[in-house]
Amino acid sequence: MALNIILIAGGYYPNFSATGNCIRQIANCYVERGHNVYMISRSPDGLETNEDFEGQHIYRVASDRTKAVVRNRTVKRNIAGKIKVVASKSYWAVRKLMAKSGMEEGLVKAYENKLEELRSKGIKIDCVVPCCLPVEGLKAGYIFCSRYNIPLFPLLYDRYSGNRDFFRFTWAWKLKRKGAEKLEKAIFDYSKKVFYIDNWGPYFEEHKRDNAVRVEHPLVVKHPSVTPLPLNGSAKINAIYQGEINHTMRPPQAMITAFEKIAETDPDVNLHVFASGNAVEDVKKAAAAHPESIRFYGKVSKEMADQYYASANVQIILANTDKEIVSSKIFESVASGYPIVYFYFSEEELSYNLLKKYPMVLFVRQDRVQDECDKIRDWMYSNCGKRVDFALVAKAYDDATPDLVVDTSVGILDKGESVIQ
Fold it and tell me: Measured on CA atoms in the order 387, 391, 394, 397, is the torsion positive or negative?
């Protein structure tokens, strides 16, 4: 029997955030199982629009703050305009700071109103699956579901009560943390099943729950065939990096050093970088110094990135300086089956241990990269034409497939169990 499932996300089609891309795979899996999917996402342009995409019915909501942000983009950049923008940003920052929850309550209401609208249209809602990024969707889903006794299946990514940065200031976090913890407990008590990734691990180690299950980013899915886009100056070895690069969180220096040194002796090895962030200038300088070997493209859409990937034969992953953070890029990369070069900091990284399960990865410690360049080059030549079978990847990373969330939630709904109170 086809179920009517509502998912709540932040950045979604056509501008997918990293978390939006994760929930996209879960939505697609529900659709493939024959269920009706209604996606409520945050509007990128302040307009409340709707359209169909990949078998999903997408509804975009906009809070007053979102509309103000959009208006600020069109304000003239003279002195008066700059003052107006600063005043607007300050107003909304204060509003969020004053909110008892620390959330953007206008966005909570926008999500909640859309849920009520769908119900008023006569849609029998079988469950709501909110993603904890933004946390406002989680709260809205709980308010709505508890009002009508509808099953709730939260997907937890970024932390809420345990995240000091969410509340902007330490004093605000300390002041509001107990209230945030109380709201979390109410939501999790009500939920049929809570799916969480490692960011939430310490919380669930402390608060043992029978209705919580650890999952990974659900990005281990078989990649569809795409039309390859040609890489600039394609060579024998085309290594590709795509994502954020940042001096503080994800520095590119080790990657740059390795390929600069390789470029001095082997012009048939190219590095192609598709990136944004405050460290792109470093890549641009390297590309200017080695224009035949290092190529910078800037930021491109997910669709274009997939097409460029299809023309490459080696993938690069950069470690995050925070060893507890796992990039979603890891799961997309292993799902592709490509050989991976991973520039890491410490064997204690969560990402390091995750990649140990992948049979075709070269680990390069960043503080030893100067001595590893010949090894990197030889390894890429030896493995550039090889691929890991997707069935092996899916088995090794079974908790990183969307099937786990979908099959678990549908199985619970099929049993017709009462909602946890």
Answer: negative
DSSP string, 251-294: --HHHHHHHHHHHTT-TTEEEEEEEESTTHHHHHHHHHHSTTTE
| Identity at 1, one-letter amino acid code | M
Calpha distance 12→42 (Å, rounded): 7
Q: Could you give the strand order of the β-sheet that contains 212-214, starting from the edge strand earlier in sequence?
A: 155-156, 194-196, 212-214
Which residue in the block uniquely carries the two structure tokens 């069109």?
74
Residues of the chain with pLDDT under 50: 418-421
Name residue 327's amino acid. Answer: S
For residue range 119-160, list pLDDT tens digits in order. 999 999 999 999 988 999 999 999 999 999 999 999 998 889
Burial of 96 (0-12, 13-18, 19+ CB in 10 A): buried
Cβ 388 vs Cβ 359: under 8 Å: yes
Output the pLDDT for position 196: 94
Does the predicted TM-score (pTM) go above 0.85? Answer: no
